[in-house]
Design a protein that fits this description.
The protein has 449 residues and is α/β, with parallel strands linked by helices. It has helices at 2-33, 105-111, 113-130, 163-174, 176-185, 194-201, 203-216, 222-235, 245-257, 271-279, 288-302, 325-337, 349-352, 369-379, 403-411, 416-425, 427-433; strands spanning 38-40, 45-47, 50-52, 64-66, 146-148, 153-156, 237-242, 362-365.
C-alpha cells in the first residue's frame, strides 16, 4: 500500500512538472513569434553610480513600452523591429500630400482649411483619449497660461516649440514700445522678454493683482473682476504648440547647453554646475575644494564670448566646454525620478499646460507650423495678421540642419537604459500628441553629422 501511495504521488508530481514545462515552452513560443510591445518595469535608474528610485507613491508611471525583439550590437542600440512605429513618424500631419506647388502658400491654406480642421480635431481626439491615463497636476508656480482679451486668445507657451515667435507676435501687438526698443538694440530678430508679457497678461499674475487690489481698495469688486477674467478665458480660443519630445530635447541642448552658448544655466547654482558636480567623469580624483575651484573656472569661461575663452587643457570641466548631451539627459532623468519639478525648458507639455484639465481648442504642431498658424488666426478672424508670424520660427543654432539627422546624431550617444528612461519621462507627451518614441535603425545613417 505504501508503495502504491508513493508511486501515485510521484506520478502526480511528474505530471504537474511536465505540464508546467509545456506551459513554459508554449509561452516562450508565443512570445518569440509575437512582436507586440511589452512593458519594461523601471524600479530604479542608476546614473553615475547614484541610484534614483521612482515616485511610486506619487502616481507617476515608470514603465515604458518596449518591443521584445531588440538586436544588440557594438554599433548601436537602435531597434530592428519592422512592425514597430518609428521615429520620425511619416504622417499626413508631417508630410501633407495635398499641396499644389503652383499655388501660393496662403491660397493653399485657404483651400484646405476644412481638411486642416479635421486634422486639428483628430489631435484633440487623441489628447482626450490619452487623458484617461494621464495624471492631473495641481496648480504650480510655473503654471503658464496667457490671456489676450482683444484677440480672444488663451496661450500656453511650450519652450523649445516655437514659443519665441508667438511671444514676439503678442509683444508687437501689446507692447510695441518694448518690441521697437529691442529691435533698435540688435541687428538680429527683435527679442521680447517673456517677463514683460507676464506682468499684464499671465492669468496667474492677473489673479494675484486682482486679489491684492481688492484688499487695498475695499470699493473694488475683486470677485467680479476675477469672475470676468475666468469667464473671458473660458470663452477664448486656447491653444498650444507641441513638438516631438526628442527634437525638443535636441533643440534645448544645442540652444542652451552646447559649448555654453547660453548664459542661462551658467550661474553658480545653475544646471551647468550641477551637471559638472554630478555627471562629469574625471580620470583624476579631486578634493571637494579643488573640484569646486575647477568648476568655477570652467563656469567663468562659459560666460565669455567664444573667441575670448582660454581653455585649460588640464581642467576636465573645460574639456569639453559646456555640458554634453548625455550629461544633460542624465540631469533630466534624475530630476524626474526624484520628483523635482522640471525646468520650463524641458518640462513635459502635459504637465506645464495641464492639458487634461484645461480645454484647448487648437493644438499646433511644430512640423506643420505655418499651416497651423494660419488656421488658428483664420479661426479667430485675424488672418490678416498672418504675415506678422509667418516664417519667424526656428532655432538659430540648428537652422539648415535636418532635425531627424540631429536626433539620430545625439541620441546615438545614449545607452539603451537612458532611452527607456527618457521614454518614461515623456510618456504622457508621446501619448497625448501622437508622437512615436521608437527607433528602428540598427546603424545610425547620420554618423557623419
Amino acid at each position: 500500500m505504501r508503495c502504491m501511495w508513493r508511486c501515485r504521488t510521484r506520478t502526480k508530481f511528474m505530471m504537474i512538472t511536465t505540464l508546467l514545462s509545456l506551459l513554459t515552452l508554449l509561452h516562450w513560443y508565443n512570445s518569440s513569434i509575437n512582436l507586440s510591445p511589452t512593458t519594461k518595469p523601471r524600479n530604479s535608474v542608476t546614473t553615475q553610480g547614484v541610484t534614483y528610485k521612482p515616485e511610486s507613491n506619487k502616481g507617476v508611471t515608470q514603465s515604458v513600452v518596449k518591443p521584445e525583439t531588440i538586436k544588440q550590437d557594438s554599433v548601436s542600440w537602435l531597434y530592428d523591429a519592422p512592425n514597430i512605429k518609428i521615429y520620425p513618424s511619416v504622417t499626413e500631419d508631417i508630410l501633407p500630400d495635398y499641396f499644389d506647388p503652383d499655388i501660393d502658400q496662403v491660397s493653399q491654406f485657404e483651400r484646405y482649411h476644412n481638411r486642416t480642421q479635421a486634422i486639428i480635431d483628430k489631435r484633440l481626439e487623441t489628447l482626450e483619449k490619452s487623458c484617461a491615463g494621464i495624471r492631473r497636476y495641481v496648480k504650480h508656480e510655473q503654471d503658464f497660461i496667457f490671456y489676450f482679451p482683444e484677440l480672444r486668445m488663451g496661450w500656453c507657451p511650450v519652450f523649445k516649440a516655437a514659443s519665441t515667435n508667438w511671444k514676439q507676435f503678442f509683444c508687437k501687438i501689446y507692447l510695441p514700445d518694448v518690441y521697437d526698443e529691442w529691435r533698435i538694440k540688435t541687428d538680429q530678430d527683435p527679442y521680447c522678454p517673456l517677463g514683460e508679457l507676464m506682468t499684464d497678461y499671465s492669468v496667474r499674475n492677473l489673479e494675484i493683482k486682482l486679489k491684492q487690489q481688492s484688499k487695498t481698495q475695499p470699493e473694488f469688486d475683486g470677485l467680479g473682476a476675477l469672475s470676468d477674467l475666468r469667464s473671458g478665458l473660458a470663452d477664448s480660443v486656447k491653444f498650444l504648440t507641441v513638438r516631438h519630445p526628442y527634437e525638443r530635447l535636441v533643440s534645448l541642448y544645442t540652444n542652451k547647453f552646447k559649448d555654453c552658448v547660453s548664459r542661462m544655466y551658467s550661474n553658480p547654482d545653475g544646471a551647468m554646475v550641477k551637471i559638472f558636480q554630478l555627471y562629469r567623469k574625471t580620470e583624476q580624483k579631486f578634493s571637494p575644494e579643488e573640484k569646486a575651484r575647477l568648476i568655477e573656472e570652467a563656469r567663468s569661461e562659459c560666460l565669455k564670448p567664444l573667441d575670448e575663452r582660454q581653455i585649460d587643457k588640464d581642467n576636465p570641466y573645460m574639456n569639453p566646454m559646456g555640458a554634453t548631451f548625455k550629461e544633460v539627459m542624465q540631469l533630466i532623468i534624475s530630476n524626474f525620478m526624484n520628483g523635482v519639478w522640471p525646468d520650463f525648458h524641458w518640462i513635459q507639455v502635459t504637465k506645464s499646460c495641464d492639458v487634461c484639465s484645461k480645454k484647448y481648442q487648437v493644438i499646433e504642431k511644430f512640423e506643420t507650423l505655418e499651416r497651423d498658424h494660419y488656421f488658428l488666426l483664420k479661426t479667430l478672424g485675424e488672418e490678416a495678421r498672418y504675415p506678422d508670424i509667418a516664417g519667424s520660427h526656428g532655432n538659430p543654432s540648428v537652422k539648415g540642419r535636418n532635425p531627424h539627422e540631429l536626433v539620430f546624431h545625439y541620441f546615438s550617444q545614449l545607452d539603451e537604459n537612458m532611452l527607456w528612461d527618457l521614454q518614461a519621462v515623456y510618456k504622457d507627451d508621446f501619448n497625448a500628441f501622437g508622437y512615436n518614441p521608437h527607433f528602428r535603425l540598427r546603424k545610425n545613417p547620420y554618423n557623419k553629422v
